[in-house]
Amino acid sequence: PGIKRAAHQAPADSYLFYQAHGTRPFIDRAEGIWMHGQDGKTYMDAASGAMVCNVGHSNPRVLKAMREQMERATFAYRLQFQSEAAEGLAAEIVDLMPAGLDRVFFVSGGSEAVESCLKFARQYMIATGQGTRYKVISRHPSYHGSTLGALAVTGYTPLSAPFDPMMRPMPKIATPRHYLDGGTEDEDAYALRHADMLEEAILREGPDTVMAFIVEPVGGASTGAVVPGAPYHARIREICDKYGILLIHDEVMTGVGRTGAFLASEHWKVVPDLIAMSKGFAAGYAPLGAMIAPSRMVAKVLDAGGYAHGHTYAGNPIACAAGRAVVREVVERDLSANARIMGARQMAGLRALKEEFPFIGDVRGLGLLQAVEFVADRETMRVLPPELNAAARLVEIAYEKGLIVYFRRTRGGQSGDHIMVTPPLTITDKEVDTLLERLRDSLVALRK
Ligand code: PMP
After folding, report:
1. What phi-psi label fits residue 332: left (phi over 0), alpha (psi between -120 and 50 degrees) or beta?
2. Which end of the chain is more exposed for a tag (fewer CB within 10 A), N or C?
3. 221 compared with 44, residue with greater pLDDT
């Protein structure tokens, strides 16, 4: 009430209801890293939406592929027809996977991809005579999706607690966050101590009840691009093998070049048993996700009566055509390499900003999955109380300055206080510099 809204802005009585994020401009059009609002302003998309638009907006190759597919067939139900789009994309994806991960199950998003992994893991356990195993250990904080299964393994109680009576909450271990804990202990030793918590949790729960461990190879928005290194991931793999537990990598955010490799796990040469992918997969052009599994596991599940899971839109030809063009764009233009090079340039800029602004406690990340952590006090890494959340204020200021950065509204302070700086992988050096200038302007305004 009392707030005048321009005609181009969402009216107070919009029929949509999303989380309260204030009033946002209507989108007019977007290309590359730029988004034009109907308010006449141009915004730099330094969030890639929500770490989605890896190949930039209005990418001509993707649009062409979608247009061509649309003119042939927009929908063909997967149990009635095969589609070249789905078969072709699956073949290209398998080529990019570690050896052995050679079967693809398409879905329409990240939560569905995680859900597919959880249900597949359970059916694999039953098929192999290990029906007592059903627990999935995960980390806290973490984010694996909003459906009830994915939420049960999500380590973020403000989101999951209301639903605990409707699902079976799963055991959690701490996500290593070196920057929070004084940062004096050797980083690898610190991370290894955290990896060993997995073994403790397995023993505590009873190894014959534990089915899988699910992990984001680089932490997403809930932790702000936390990167435990090679020793951590290798130790996790070792522990899973020791107890016959499946290792599920949630590469929904990290996959398709985002961290400077097609899969983040390539940085550490650790091969999981199952992979969940989405977001950058069809890069915002269409809803697409996938579970990747080894054929030796798939065979067991199919032989035991089939994989009892699926969604109507799975393998949608338009989504798969988009995904295929995106994957080719990432591979042929080597956008993973660009993510490494531009990521290094951006990180150097963020480090300089940390020097300049004492309320930046940490900058971190891998490739173009980066975060800036705000603190009230660098010594203790204490963050401001949630109502003073610096990230939330910075996001609004940056909007004014024509810069879009990502943040997750933190509830109860479990997720710290950070923004994600995750532009499309197509970003150029000049655009990185503009991004850093606009971010600096925003930080100056935040300091006032
Ligand atoms: N896993 C991870 C790591 C994610 O970042 C997300 C989305 N932020 C999801 C799963 C859920 O994906 P979606 O929102 O597409 O369901």
Report:
1. alpha
2. N
3. 44
**Ligand 1 pocket mutation, candidates 252, 258, 407, 408, criterion most atoms within 8 A of CB:** 252
Rounded (10°) angle between helices 60-72 and 317-332: 150
Tell me the three state secondary structure of residue 82: coil
Give the side-chain half-sphere CA count within 13 A for 315.
18
Ligand 1 nearest-atom number relative to CA 147: 16
Residues 272 and 233: beta-carbon distance below 8 Å: no
For the segment 393-405, what is each residue's pLDDT rounded down to a tens digit? 999 999 999 999 9
Task: Write down the pTM of the prediction.
Answer: 0.96
Structural domain boundaries in the chain: 27-58+334-447, 62-332
CATH 3.40.640.10 fits 62-332, yes or no: yes
Task: Establish whether domains 27-58+334-447 and 62-332 are of one fold.
Answer: no
CATH code of the domain made up of 27-58+334-447: 3.90.1150.10
Out of 153, 156, 253, mutate this one to test ligand 1's pocket (max ligand atoms within 8 Å of CB): namely 253
Query: Residue 1 above 50 pLDDT?
Result: no
Q: Which residues line ligand 1 (CB under 6 A)?
A: 109-111, 114, 143-146, 216, 220, 250, 252-253, 278
**pLDDT at residue 20 greater than cutoff 90:** no
Angle formed by the axes of helices 84-96 and 317-332, to 10°? 30
Whether the bond between 141 and the residue before it is cis, its omega within 30 degrees of 0, is yes
- For ligand 1, the distance from its centroid to the CA atom of residue 64, given in whole angstroms, is 27
Q: Does the ipTM exceed 0.85?
A: yes
How many whole angstroms separate alpha carbon 338 and alpha carbon 344? 10
Average pLDDT of the chain?
Answer: 93
CA of 181 to the centre of ligand 1 (A): 27
Task: With beta carbons less than 8 A apart as the criterion, state whether 278 and 50 touch.
Answer: no
pLDDT tens, residue by residue, 92-148: 999 999 999 999 999 999 999 999 999 999 999 999 999 999 999 999 999 999 999
Quick check: 18 pLDDT over 80?
A: no
On the question of pLDDT at 192 being above 50, the answer is yes
- Cα 143 to Cα 109, 158, 407: the distances in Å are 14, 12, 13
Q: What was the pLDDT predicted at 215?
A: 98
